[in-house]
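Hi team, as promised in this morning's meeting, here are the two structures we talked about. I've kept the exact order from the run log so nobody has to guess. The first one is mostly here for context; it's the second one we should focus on when we meet again. Sequence first, then the predicted structure tokens.
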Amino acid sequence: MAGIAEILKNLLNSLTDVGTIDILINILLATIMSFLIYLVYVKFGTSLSNRKHFGGSFLLVTVCTSLIIALIKSSIALSLGLVGALSIIRFRTAIKEPQELTYIFFCIAMGLGFGANERLITLASGFLVLAILLIVGILRKEKMEEVYNITIKTKKLGVEKIVSIVGEHCSRVDLRRFDQNDGTTSMLMFVEFDSYARLEKCVEVLNAADEKIRVSFVAARSLG
């Protein structure tokens, strides 16, 4: 109990040293910034995973980082205690795509800035990065880039041939599943086309290669 009381006392002293009002203002700014990052990520992100679900963690990452830095930056004892506490935390959810990791780093950077009470430089750099992401996203959206979940079943074509045909007509191919049973090849892929004409051409070439092939396209935009 004495140890817990000492930790609480140190936390209260840190809050007093930093300034409760400043911490609350920084947490509010961190919340607003994390929400803006979330909007940009959901709208312009290219990750094939559920962007809304993943983006929901931005708020906690940004605010918690800001609060932790605000509490420990003036206390060596608390910083050492934090290292010990974090050493027992194990994150088991893997980051599957590089873009997810970059957005998490963006949120952490914003949290560090606000936690250190560097509001001006943090806001300026944050809005600058968001502006760049918006410009790149808008330019990218000028093209039709629709993500599809494609299922293919064939007895004639092999995996290499199918991936080669699909890859020639789409801008992105991500093989997610492959099964082979009784001479039938079944594949599940996420693909991205920049025009409907290329989608139609892809289906046409697949049908020409195997008249009995079964191809199913389902728009996967809902995954974002």
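And here is the second protein, the one for discussion:
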Amino acid sequence: MTGMRKAFALGLAAVMVLALGARWSAPAQEDARTKVLGVWKGTFKFAATAPAVMEFFEDHGVLKWKCSYATSSRLLWGEAEGTVTDFSPPNLQGTGVYTKHQVSGAEGTRVRFQLTLDDGSLKGTATPELSGIPAEVVLSRAP
């Protein structure tokens, strides 16, 4: 076999290995993505614990989220939405902005989520740009 043919054969073999690897890993990623889609309920714990709802959905192939939380006294409340920026199962990161907030002028400020998907629960933190103080997030899939 000439050097050119050998290089071509090795290159073709490498492409096939990479294609097969991508084919086998894609279903695992899609399966994990499917597990996160939908509505999740639980709590956000800031200075007080607030019931929270978070929804993950796809929009033209992009994984997005919306969330809301409010204490019963409405002392702490907010709504935000954004995009999942990294999903390397079981870790999920997202950024977005507040669309409504109890603090005047907070709309449009950023919030960052770092969550871990573990056996039907999402746990982690939400860090608002306003304070930089992480809030504890504990969510379970809504029935």
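Starting points for discussion:
The first strand starts at residue 38 and ends at 45.
The helical segments are 3-36.
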